UniProtKB/TrEMBL annotation:
InterPro entries hit by this protein: Thioredoxin-like_fold, Thioredoxin-like_sf
Domain of life per record: Eukaryota
Keyword check for Signal: yes
Domain named Thioredoxin-like fold: residues: 33-205
Organism (species): Branchiostoma belcheri (Amphioxus)
KW Signal (keyword) present: yes
Protein name as catalogued: Uncharacterized protein LOC109466084
Gene giving rise to this polypeptide: LOC109466084
Pfam hit, one: Thioredoxin_4
Keywords per UniProt: Signal
Signal peptide span: 1-17
Length: 256
């Protein structure tokens, strides 16, 4: 794994000076998430990554819980080079996007659900042509022409290919080195792919409170901190005791 990350970082470093300006802001916003939302949650995902598969449904649940005007969840494609079918399946996301924004999420749902069908050892004896044909059948089931899907994925001069490449390079310049990779209001969050909605709410609610956004309180237990100190739950499972004059900063802890 460490070797894979080292290789990925080396490739990223070689590409950072060659990133073209995207035609539109990168990523796919879920359920009409608004650019003006006070919380911007981004996840860089690889459709062949088991951890991305685990985190993905929770991200959608978090977005639904807060609503599009409070939190925008944006999914970015970041196909890892050591997952053979990751780039092809990422291209499929952009084909789906051209057919309709709702189909993006249907594509992600389906490919994550069928993930094992596109990984080693299932694909050991399959050619790229056979893999693309299999993915094209998935596209066809969604109402996307399998012929058009195949033509777009096979054409390295098509915008689908270009968009998938730019998405990966964009992840590199954002410092992404694995998947899933989370950014909260543009800052990396050391979140586990197994975080629950409640764990995400802990850090997001803190952000909203700082911005003066009303957050419904949940029942809290007794404080772990001494008298006159305030418990700061800056990440799920992590807390510090803030003294007078210190603020509780999500993802950081107590700071003056």
């Amino acid at each position: 794994m460490m070797l894979g990350i080292t290789v990925l970082l080396a490739i990223c470093a070689a590409c950072t000076a060659q990133v073209p300006i995207p035609q539109r802001p990168p990523g796919f916003a879920y359920a009409g998430g608004m650019a003006s939302a006070p919380v911007q949650l981004e996840a860089f995902l690889d459709l062949m990554c088991p951890d991305s598969k685990a985190a993905y449904p929770v991200m959608k649940q978090v977005a639904t819980a807060y609503g599009s005007s409070t939190l925008r969840f944006t999914a970015h494609m970041f196909p890892l080079p050591y997952h053979r079918t990751a780039f092809i399946s990422a291209q499929g996301t952009f084909v789906a996007a051209e057919a309709g924004s709702d189909l993006v999420w249907k594509w992600l749902d389906t490919i994550f659900e069928q993930q094992e069908e596109y990984k080693i050892p299932k694909t050991n004896d399959m050619s790229d042509t056979q893999i693309i044909k299999k993915l094209a059948m998935v596209a066809e089931s969604m109402g996307i022409s399998s012929k058009n899907f195949t033509m777009q994925v096979n054409n390295d001069e098509d915008m689908v290919y270009e968009n998938a490449r730019v998405a990966w390079k964009y992840g590199c310049i954002r410092g992404v080195a694995g998947t899933p990779w989370f950014l909260l209001n543009g800052v990396p969050v050391n979140a586990s792919p197994n975080w629950t909605v409640a764990q995400w709410k802990q850090i997001i609610d803190s952000l909203l409170k700082q911005q003066g956004v009303f957050v419904k309180e949940t029942m809290e237990g007794s404080s772990n901190c001494p008298l006159l100190q305030k418990e700061c739950n800056y990440l799920p499972g992590k807390y510090e005791c803030c003294t007078k004059g210190e603020a509780c900063i999500p993802n950081v802890g107590c700071r003056c």
